[in-house]
Design brief:
Distance between the termini: 13 Å
Radius of gyration: 21 Å
Mean pLDDT: 93
Strand order of the largest sheet: 1-2-3-4-5-7-13-14
Helix content: 25-40%
Oligomer: single chain
Shape: globular
Low-confidence stretches: none
Number of strands: 16
Amino acid sequence: MVFPKDFLWGGATAANQCEGGYLDGGKGLTIQDMITGGGIDKPRLFWGKIDESAFYPSHEAVDFYHYYKEDIRLFGEMGFKCYRMSISWARIFPQGEEKEPNEEGLAFYEAVFEECHKYGIEPMVTLNHFDMPWNLAVKYGGFGSRKVVDLFVAYAKCVMEHFKDKVRYWLTFNEINFGLLEMGAYKSLGFVDEEDLARKEFAPKDTLKKDLKVQLQAMHHQFIASALTVKAAHEINKENKVGCMISHITQYPLTCHPKDVLEAQRKDRILNKFSGDVMVLGGYPSYMNRWFEENGIILKKEPGDEKILKEGCVDFYSFSYYMTNCATVREDVEQVKGNLMGGARNPYLETSEWGWQIDSDGLRYTLNELWDRYHIPLMIVENGLGAPDKVEEDGRIHDDYRISYLKGHVDAMKEAILDGAQVMGYTAWSAIDVVSSGTGEMKKRYGFIYVDRYDDGTGDFHRIPKDSFYWYKKCIASNGEVI
């Protein structure tokens, strides 16, 4: 056997993309609740209030809130060893700053975790997956305020204390490097101001654009919040393991021209390695200090911040992997789309319907690079193919394209383990169909389980296992040997 016997096979979701029940059980509004549906070429809309005539996909999503028992039973049937999910901060603290938690919210997640354990599934919980309480975004400007660090840590301590006997694996911030990009200003950092509230449409790429200096200051606050959470987790339960979560957009030079090689290194350092270095190694890397200086960025740090980062290093490195990009200094090359950001087209790769380049070999390369750099356990917590699945006349969903994608990446993961990388688990994106975070549509489906839900808000939510469901069941049962 190549994969360790305790390898964490499973799937992943996020509360704002699957849960629904957006005001049920005392939950408060989140930043995701304010965004309407969209599409690949259709902008998503943002107002500072709910428009009853508009469609907001997160409000019902795929209604995991009411279907969780059926969904987890199906996860158990697939043989999941791990289910990566998120807790909605606003379901625990509706405004984000209450003194006491919402008991109904705690009870809901208690029931979810108990259902997971019923099927032998280990929950892995992301504490903040792009769904900050709306009140904190409006009142404080999200993580632009140091105040929100204390509020996040209070929330994290609350749930880690409450579920200390039910959850051992935690992730602090989903794709924390998202905060470097324009679109991350709102989704990751929670930036909202009066100008934003007055506008009626997102800028390109669903963003509320901010100054990079302000975004980096907010990212510093997230790093501090994460480090304090790691330290608290270890104090609450010595069995707790806490990971970072990076969206790893692996960079290749488009050509062997030295300028392209250096450009690929520059992008890789800023986008990928920066956040990982801070959270794994416990401090700002020298290349970023030079970049800050050259771009006139001076971070405001409080006394003790460096010590906090050093003492709050994560236990494992988790990341999402969907594709690779090519970097070049040339401006006359064809560009492609992608998760978070695009890049120059790689002539050797195929692309998905949404323009994402498919590169399973890149996962092996990425795992080896990460292992050589950090020497801590690695985990792929998102990897999958978005496609417009169709229910055929026989009532089945024949998603051979997804099986082919996943086979290639499981095989690449196996090769990386043989190369020497320590890989602890794999949770495919996604366990079940969810609302696409990037485009806000149901048409772009990722799950092993089809949900009867559509972009016009219709559908009765019934579930249908896809062909990939049965393929993954065999993969898990054989511990990755039968793919």
